[in-house]
Amino acid sequence: MSTGILCGCGAVFAGGLVGTVCGKYISDETKDVITTVFGMAAVGNGIMSLIKGSTMPPVILALIVGTLIGQSLQLERRVKSGLKAALDRLPLAADRIDMDEYVTIVAIFCAGGFGIYGALMEGMSGDSSILLSKSIMDFFTAILFAGTMGAAVSLVAFPQLAIFMILFWFARLIVPLTTPELLNDFVACGGIMTIAAGLRVAKIKDMPLINMLPALVLVMFFSRGWGMVF
Question: Smallest Cα–Cα separation from 155: which of 104, 101, 86, 95?
Fold first, then answer.
C-alpha cells in the first residue's frame, strides 16, 4: 500500500470532518481571504510543475485538443449531474452545496498535477515525500471548504483514493513506455490544470477543469510523437 496516498486521503477525510464541526466558528471574511490564499497557493504549485516541462508545443496542443473533446462531451456538466445525484441520496443537505465549487474541489484533490505526479513517483520509486507534503495542505484546504459545504467534502477522499491508487499500481507498467521528457510534459500539463484550478478557487477565472481532463491522456501521445519527429 502507498503511505503517501493513504496519508493524503486520510488528511482530506479528517479535514472535512473537522471543518464540518468547526467551520461555523470561521467568519465569512476569513473564509474568503483564506480561499483566495489557497487559490494562489494552487497557482504556485502549478507553476512549479509547469516549469518541469521539456517541450511546451505538445503540452499546449494536448490542452487545446483535450479541452475541445471535454467541451464536446460536456464532461463537466455530466460530472456535476452525477455528483448531485449521488449527494441527493445522502443526508448531506446537498441543496446548499454549490456544485460549481464542489466540482472545483474534486478537481483540485483528484486531478491536480502535484498529486498525480506524486502518486506516479511513489509507485515508481517508493518516494512518498511529495504526497506527504501535499497532505498537509490538503488537510487545511478540506477544513476550509467543509466549513461551507459540510461533510460532503470528506467524500472527495474516496474518488481521490481510487484515482491515486490506480496510478500507483500501474506506474510500473507506464514507466517502461515513457521517457523523462514525456513525464516532464505530463507534469507540466497537470501544472497548467492546477493553475486553472487555483484561478477558479480564487474566483479570478471560471476555468472548465473537468473538460480539460482529456489533456492528461493526450499529452503522453503528443509528447512521444513530438519527440520522434523533432
Answer: 86
